[in-house]
Amino acid sequence: MNNKQETFNRARLEILNYVMTFCTNTLYDGKCLPPFGKTCGFESGAFADNPPIGSLVRLMAAPFTKWYLSWLLEIKEETLGYRKYLLKSVEDGSLCWWENIGLYHMPLEESDKFPHWKYNDNQFEFWDKWKKANKWEDVYVLAPLRPIFNGLSVTLDLRKKHTNDIAGSKTFCNWNKLTIREMREFIRETAKSLKRI
């Protein structure tokens, strides 16, 4: 593991594109379009309620800051009912404790659909490498799913195209050291096992 600062440029772009497309209104002939569903946008809870840990939040009653859109990591209940919020900025992953602010949050059922919003740029590069390995193998029937990172380990899944069926799944102990050759080997093994069925 190196000491180089993690960057989150691609995740931030995906989040901002989603927010601008699905969480903001456009005025058209005096009407707000599109009409959003319950899970679109950011919710404000009652003052006594805390957003769920892991929520994508935006600040309310706060100065201009790079924590304008952040991940909520922790909540501390202080004396006299005050709360402190540990936020991780989508801009660069910086952590900061905030207090005396309000938070709007995206419902977890919405943001949880996009686990790659928490990828750092190196993890996005790994995702590119995984797609490239699949393309080089040219196995039409298999589609690579986004990697599932757990610390240094990563789980790679292959879906059978035109279905939701997972055709193969394998966990590797260190995604930083995983080679395209090893990925291609896993794809070939999965394709062979499909042919045997």
Overall average residue pLDDT: 89
> Which word captures the global form?
globular
The residue ranges in which pLDDT falls below 50 over 5 or more consecutive positions are none
The N- to C-terminal Cα distance equals: 41 Å
Number of DSSP helices? 4
Alpha-beta classification: alpha+beta
Strand content: 25-35%
Radius of gyration: 20 Å
Largest sheet: 6 strands, antiparallel
- How are strands sequenced across the largest beta sheet? 3-8-4-5-6-7
Q: Count the strands?
A: 12
Q: In percent, how helical is the residue content?
A: 25-40%
Query: What is the H/E order?
Result: HEEEEEEEEHHEEEEH
SSE arrangement:
Blueprint: H1 9-22, E1 26-28, E2 31-33, E3 43-44, E4 56-60, E5 69-77, E6 83-89, E7 95-99, E8 102-105, H2 108-111, H3 121-137, E9 142-144, E10 148-150, E11 153-160, E12 166-172, H4 180-196
Antiparallel strand pairs: 1-2, 3-8, 4-5, 4-8, 5-6, 6-7, 9-11, 10-11, 11-12
Structure in words:
This protein is an alpha+beta fold and 197 residues long. Helices cover 26% and strands 30% of the residues. It is built from four helices and twelve strands. It has helices at residues 9-22, 108-111, 121-137, 180-196; strands at residues 26-28, 31-33, 43-44, 56-60, 69-77, 83-89, 95-99, 102-105, 142-144, 148-150, 153-160, 166-172. A hairpin with a 2-residue loop joins strand 1 and strand 2 (31-33). Helix 3 packs across helix 4 (180-196). The longest helix is centred in the middle third of the chain and has 17 residues, at 121-137. The model has no long low-confidence stretch (mean pLDDT 89).
